[in-house]
Every structure is written in C-alpha cells, then in structure tokens.
C-alpha cells in the first residue's frame, strides 16, 4: 500500500513538471507558436524628393581686402577700430615719417646739385660753341689765303688745328650736357620715389567697407611689402553686405554639385533658422589631409548667402551690415537634384545583396598523392543588386528594384514596384542580413518591434 502511494506521488510530480516545462516552452516560443519574424512596413508612395549634399564650413565676407603697408617702420597712429565703416580714401593708420622725410630732403638736395651741374654744362657748351664759330671762320679765311698762296703753311696748319680743337670741345661739351641731363632725370626719379615712400607712411582705405580685423596697435613695428614678402598685414576691410560660406565637400559627393545649386544654410548662432544660398564657386584642385593611409580628399565649395533670406535680421540704421560675423560655423545642405511626384520608399527598406553559389570540385587522385581527397571550393559571385522585401500574404518576397535619387528619409524607385506595394522597412538587421525570400513575417507597429513577449 505504501509503495502504491509513492508511485502516485511520483506520477503527480512528473505531470506537474511536464506542465511547467510546456508552459515555459510555450512562453519562449519553442512550441505552440509559428516561427514568425516581426517587421515593420510602409507602402510605396509618390512624393517629391530632393537630393542633398551636406557639408560644414565657415562664414566669411565674399569680398575682403588684406592691407599691408608699402614701407616699414613704427606705427605712430591708428585712426580706426574693428567694426568701423570706412569709405575709400579714409586715413587708416600712419607710420613714422621722419626717416622718409629726411631721405626725401636729401634726395631733393641732390637733385638741385645735379640741376646746377646741368646749368654749368650748358653754359660751357655755349662758350665752346662760340669759340668753335670763331675758329671755323678763321680756318675758312686762312684756307682761302692758303689757296691764294698768301700765307705760309705754318699759319694754315695753326688755323686748321684750332678749328679741330674747337670742334672736339663742342662735342665733349654736348656729351657733358647729355650726361648732366640724365643725372637730373635720375635724381628726379629718386625724388619721386622718395616722395611716394613719404606719402605711403599714411595708409588709406583702397575700398569702402567695414574693418573686419585689426592686427596692429600704436607703437608696433611693421614690415613693408616687397617683391619677396607680403609685409605685415595690419588690417582687413570687408564688404559685410554679401557673405559666403566655404565648405569642404568629399570627393565622392563633389561630382553631384554644380554651380548655382540652391543651398540651405544653418548657422550655429541662429538655431532653428535656415538661410538660403547658391553655389558660386567649386574648386578644381583638391585639399588632401591626413597621413597616406588615412588621407581625406575634399574640395572647397563657396556658397553665397542670399541677403533676402536674412533681411529681417539687419538693423534699419545700418543697412550695409550683416548679422553674421566672419568665422561663424555653418552647416550647408546643397540641393543637387529634385524630382517631383515620383515613387518612393523608406531608405532603410532598400538593401544591397549579392547571390553566391559554391561549386565543389575534386582533384583527381594520382599515384603518390595523399590518401585523403583534396577539395577546391570556387565561389561564384553575382554583381551586387538592390532589393526590397514586399509583404505578400504574410510572407516576405525579395523584389529586385532600381533606384534614383534620395534624401535622408526616402529613396526614389524607378523600376520594380508600383504605388501601394507594401515593403518591409525594419528592423534594419532583418532587412539587410537575416531576412530571406519566403520567410514568414508578422507586421507590427514600431513600438512593438522590440517589445519582449
């Protein structure tokens, strides 16, 4: 009797354990549930789509003039400060003119000396010309007398010699006048140069604009520009009425950017505000940065910001100013292409896959070969294609498609789908890797996709 009771207890315990095991297995989906993959879906619809290229950069004036002095010296006066508006011809700064003034006076005195030498040379020329006229007249008279046998040979020779000497003195005097004249012209050029250098100690604005940068203060020494040096940059004058953004675009995207492309500009200083711009310049040479193993190749692109998009930020009292400052950070979305009323799907619904097959080949056995058969595996890979998974009767069907332009959310489908087709849009891992043609699926809301049962 006791043995029978033990058997009953063991049976009851076994039944309980089986029930618990079945419950756990059912909860974990091992039994009682069909093997379904949870996915989200979205229908293919027609939309307008804009393809963009995004890049970061800095704001700067479209026209900015760097000003360096033409002469070296100590800055004795600065008449402007950063932010001042100036007109062309405004006196900006002054370099100590003492050395240049004394040099001008010295060269001017040298000019006066050469002018006096020229006057003396001309007076000497007039004198020898008069002597030459007398010597010539005496020679011609003595020549007639010599022909008439009225004078001796010595008298004739003396008259001829005096004539030749007077003639050579005239030639020499004329050359002296020419030399003195050249000296005067050289001295005049030196005076002009010294005067220009003296004038250049006063630095004037070459263009109208705003002082965007001031690099010197009174008392500092600056170097003048020369053939081999740009000199010390003392300030910059910019036209702040027209601003631009310089961005670096990767070599993979630069081929899609064209002149006059419309752009949307976001400036860090003005959150939740987008300004309009157009592409005005695309670099033809690349900027390469990084080491050889990690080189990054970018191209500079300039985008002019349209004043009409920020006119409300410009004070009425200063219409030629800008709400932006040189050096501000900006993010630009260059609109490279636009398509209206085209079929689109979520960008994450498109996956690129390749079909691979393996062919197993056996090498023929030969004498002396190893006892085990050597096998060679050849992998034949088809070109990468673009696909989407279409929902059909609770099953994922792999559908080959052709795509067009895309934005950050949607991608254009040019072939393979029609409006209203339901495509699987998530999860990403399933679409890109694990999901296969013919897999059974369950379409759920995004909130339920990763919810635990």
Radius of gyration: 48 Å
What is the residue-averaged pLDDT?
85
Major β-sheet annotation: 6 strands, antiparallel, barrel
Order of strands side by side in the largest beta sheet?
A: 2-11-15-13-12-16
- The assigned structural class equals alpha+beta
Order of helices and strands: HEEEEEEHHEEEEEHEEEEEEEEEEEEEHE
Tell me the CATH architecture of the domain at 69-214.
Orthogonal Bundle
Task: Write up what this structure looks like.
- By secondary structure, this protein is α+β, with helices and mostly antiparallel strands.
- Among the domains are: 53-62 and 240-338, Elongation Factor Tu (Ef-tu), domain 3, CATH 2.40.30; 69-214, Helix Hairpins (Orthogonal Bundle).
- The chain contains 5 helices and 25 strands.
- The chain has helices at 2-27, 98-147, 153-199, 251-254, 428-434; strands at 37-43, 45-61, 64-67, 73-78, 85-86, 91-95, 202-204, 209-214, 221-222, 235-238, 243-250, 262-267, 274-282, 287-289, 296-305, 329-346, 351-353, 356-362, 375-381, 385-392, 395-400, 402-406, 410-415, 422-426, 441-443.
- It has a 6-stranded antiparallel beta barrel. A 4-stranded antiparallel sheet has the order 3-10-8-5, with no helix packed on it. The protein has a 4-stranded antiparallel sheet with strand order 7-6-4-9, with no helix packed on it.
- A hairpin with a 6-residue loop joins β12 and β13 (274-282).
- α2 (98-147) packs antiparallel against α3.
- It is elongated, with a radius of gyration of 48 Å.
- 20% of the residues are buried.
């Amino acid at each position: 009797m006791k043995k029978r009771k033990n058997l009953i207890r063991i049976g009851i315990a076994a039944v309980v354990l089986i029930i618990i095991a079945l419950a756990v297995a059912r909860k974990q989906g091992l039994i009682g549930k069909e093997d379904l993959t949870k996915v989200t879906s979205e229908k293919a619809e027609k939309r307008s789509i804009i393809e963009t290229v995004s890049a970061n950069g800095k704001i700067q004036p479209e026209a900015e003039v760097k000003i360096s002095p033409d002469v070296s010296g100590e800055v004795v006066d600065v008449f402007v400060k950063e932010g001042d508006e100036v007109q062309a011809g405004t006196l900006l700064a002054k370099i100590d003119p003492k050395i240049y003034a004394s040099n001008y006076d010295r060269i001017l005195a040298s000019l006066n000396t050469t002018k006096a030498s020229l006057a003396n040379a001309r007076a000497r020329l007039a004198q020898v010309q008069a002597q030459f006229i007398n010597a010539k007249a005496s020679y011609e008279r003595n020549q007639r007398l010599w022909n008439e046998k009225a004078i001796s040979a010595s008298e004739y020779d003396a008259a001829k010699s005096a004539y030749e000497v007077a003639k050579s003195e005239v030639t020499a005097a004329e050359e002296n006048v020419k030399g003195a004249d050249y000296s005067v012209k050289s001295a005049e050029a030196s005076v002009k140069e010294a005067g220009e250098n003296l004038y250049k100690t006063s630095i004037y604005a070459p263009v109208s604009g705003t002082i965007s940068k001031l690099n010197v203060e009174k008392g500092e020494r600056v170097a003048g520009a020369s053939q081999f040096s740009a000199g010390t940059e003392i300030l910059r004058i910019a036209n702040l009425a027209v601003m631009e953004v310089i961005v670096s675009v990767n070599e993979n995207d630069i081929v899609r950017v064209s002149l006059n492309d419309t752009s949307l500009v976001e400036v860090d200083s003005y959150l939740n505000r987008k300004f309009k711009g157009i592409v005005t310049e695309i670099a033809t040479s690349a900027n390469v940065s990084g080491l050889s193993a990690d080189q990054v190749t970018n191209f500079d692109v300039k985008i002019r910001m349209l004043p009409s998009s920020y006119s409300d930020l410009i004070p009425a009292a200063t219409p030629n100013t800008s709400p932006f400052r040189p050096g501000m950070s900006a993010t630009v979305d260059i609109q490279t292409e636009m398509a209206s009323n085209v079929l689109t799907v979520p960008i994450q619904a498109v996956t690129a896959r390749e079909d691979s097959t393996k062919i197993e080949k056996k090498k023929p056995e030969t004498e002396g070969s190893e006892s085990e058969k050597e096998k060679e595996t050849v992998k034949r890979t088809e070109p990468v294609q673009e696909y989407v998974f279409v929902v059909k009767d609770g099953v994922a069907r792999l559908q080959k498609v052709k795509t067009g332009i895309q934005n950050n959310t949607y991608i254009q489908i040019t072939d393979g789908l029609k409006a209203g087709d339901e495509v699987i849009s998530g999860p990403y891992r399933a679409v890109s890797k694990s999901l296969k043609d013919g897999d059974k699926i369950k379409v759920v809301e995004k909130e339920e996709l990763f919810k635990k049962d």
